[in-house]
Design goal:
Layout (H helix, E strand, L loop, with lengths): L2 H11 L1 H18 L1 H4 L37 H37 L1 H16 L2 H12 L3 H27 L3 H8 L4 H9 L4 H24 L11 H8 L8 H28 L6
Helix pairs in contact: 1-2, 2-4, 2-12, 4-5, 4-7, 4-10, 4-12, 5-7, 6-7, 7-10, 8-9, 10-11, 10-12, 11-12
Amino acid sequence: MSRGPALRSFWKRHTLGTIGIAILAIAVGCALAAPLIAPYSPTAISLLARMKPPFWLEGGSFAHPLGTDNLGRDMLSRVIYGSRISLAVGFAAVLMGAAIGTTVGILAGYFGGWIDSILSFLIDVQLSFPFTLLAIFLLATLGGGFWPIVCVLALATWVNYARVVRGQVMSIRSQDYVEAARTVGVQTRRILTRYILPNTVSSIIVVASFSMAQAILTEAALSFLGVGVDGSNPSWGTMLNDGRNYLQTAWWLTAMPGVAIALTVLGGNLCGDWLQDHFDPRLAR
């Protein structure tokens, strides 16, 4: 089958998944190529051009297609550069949360006994805390910034991986090939890395796709509350915070980053649904 018909067939069978992949690809592309495609510096101030509306409104122009903010900074450039912080935080939080949660889930599911009891207790303790209040407390104590917020978001998401992986490992450890490996004296570390972990990768990928969307949304919420990343670097959350005092006079200051957040989260969720259907055909609609 040639490439054209294959792509059309994939589009028909996975329309929503394709849309999600396209949205995420555009977001990642904007983040990687921001210095090349942004028309202005995101921090360039021009008081003579402050509060310019988008080009389709009276007083707007194509010089600033999405308008300018209260300091005359170009909104399109800030939205493009804001994707770098928001996506970087999301990716880093997903990687850290997946590493912690997968490790905990494998250990709890494979060894069982008191190890499972302790790790399950830690999971229950984590789930018992209201995350937003915990995150605000930790960030107010540690201070905002890229790595503090990544650590806080990883703290919020690792339990999702741990619970899913633990359940799968408890089923996998009783399989014949695992029992045979133990019988012939294969080291526990090799069993975990060669026989257990590869069989949980599909579930980890699905959880990661949903966690990515959750991390971006949570980062925006925390930055909006003023405890997220450094305000000197544009992120979608800090842009929402900057524009909240101008909702009635300059709605585009919050609408533009808000639309970017909504589309990116939508793309992540659509990809998550597609991956879930792909790895578990029983859920296919």
